[in-house]
Amino acid sequence: MTKCFLTNTNSTELNGMTIWKEKVFYTTTDKEVKCSSLDGREIFTHKSNKMGQPVSIAMLSADVLLFLDRNCTLHALSSDGKKHSILLQKFQKVADPCDMWISIDDNTVYIAGGEYIDINMKRVKTLPFIVSSQPTKVEIRCCGCKSLINSDQLRLGVREYKSISWFHYACFWTNCYYRNHLRGVDGNTLAELVDGFIGISPSDKSRLLIDASSAPSIGRRKSGSKLEIPYEGSEEDGDYELDDNIFDLTNLVCCAVTKVQTNLHVSIRKYFIPRGRTCAKPTKYGISLNCEQWNKLELMVDDINSAIATTQKTLKDKEKEKDKKDCKDKNKLQGKEEFPDWILFSLSWKRRVGVFASGEAVVVDIREFSEEKTFSESDRGIRLTPDQWKQLQENINNINKSLRKLSS
């Protein structure tokens, strides 16, 4: 059976067309990019004064549409037609482009025109994870249990180089090496990490949000170790001076607002006092947050305070229980302890704010985690006591004033 529908394309002009997920994307002589269903129902029309006459169109695996116009401009358009950006505005040799192709791994765009073909290594960001429950005719086998995944079953996948490793939803959380990168994250972060998250059903979305909000399952960590500051000077608390836009959080932990070129950062780190001086200087131990991450942290203040109160109560209950039992675990490894229960908040894919008990104290840990297969802490971070966290809260308005001052 053949289905036909009317378009305003013109065979005398160079136009492009591609089909993706049962949708037809095509260009028109009116300098438009259109999307229609297979039965001819128009889904959207995109037109912009930034566009010349489109001549070729192609879809990336990340649901990003690329199209080429006669003004030697390569455009990117989201599959819903709402987000448009320009990737390239000049080619090396091609002056009159007429066609383009994309490599299998989406990393290379080949642009043809006249006697030349330009090869552009222009990477378009692809999301590392993918979720889907859409029926598929392709046979998919779970990389965890090795059994087949039903075509309409909810499944999670990891993009690795040129392929996707698919898992049953339950198998992903038990067998996937990268599962902890989706632990302790909120809905906004999931949308940044998981392709297809916005399009799944509300029940599946709620299920994924619940599983992703739990803390990562980390095995063991060293305890009792203290970072040594390789600087000649004092780490002892006492009288010390600070430069402008630096706010003291006590015990030589400070928060500084800095500007590097046009980028603003809020840096929370350990300071030291150089020998023979009174002005404290920063060490490398700490973390710098961009404005977006700082704003997220600011919005989390109440939730973090609740987490501190909950952890303090849990710690007291455990102490009472320990006093009653008055016994020790003889099988516990010397110098190591089980990783405590974290209450986690997400600043970005790799950055988390964790509230947990360290020994007999509660700490607020702002840290970047590694990209390795095992979800582990990196040295890039800072651990604050409740008093230091309180000082940071009291300085929020001053920090924001410094940000506004430096941005003007």
TrEMBL record:
Any one GO CC term of the record: nucleus
GO terms, biological process: positive regulation of transcription initiation by RNA polymerase II
Keywords, comma-separated and alphabetical: DNA-binding, Metal-binding, Nucleus, Transcription, Transcription regulation, Zinc, Zinc-finger
Family statement: Belongs to the transcriptional coactivator PC4 family.
Domain PARP-type, chain residue ranges per copy: 142-208
Gene3D superfamilies reported for this sequence: Transcriptional Coactivator Pc4, Chain A (2.30.31.10), Zinc finger, PARP-type (3.30.1740.10)
Transmembrane segment boundaries: none
Location in or out of the cell: Nucleus
Pfam family, one: PC4
Alphabetized PROSITE patterns for the sequence: ZF_PARP_2
InterPro entries with a match to the protein in the record: PC4_C, ssDNA-bd_transcriptional_reg, Sub1/Tcp4-like, Znf_PARP, Znf_PARP_sf
Protein name stated in the entry: PARP-type domain-containing protein
PANTHER family the UniProt entry points to: RNA POLYMERASE II TRANSCRIPTIONAL COACTIVATOR (PTHR13215)
GO terms of molecular function: DNA binding; transcription coactivator activity; zinc ion binding
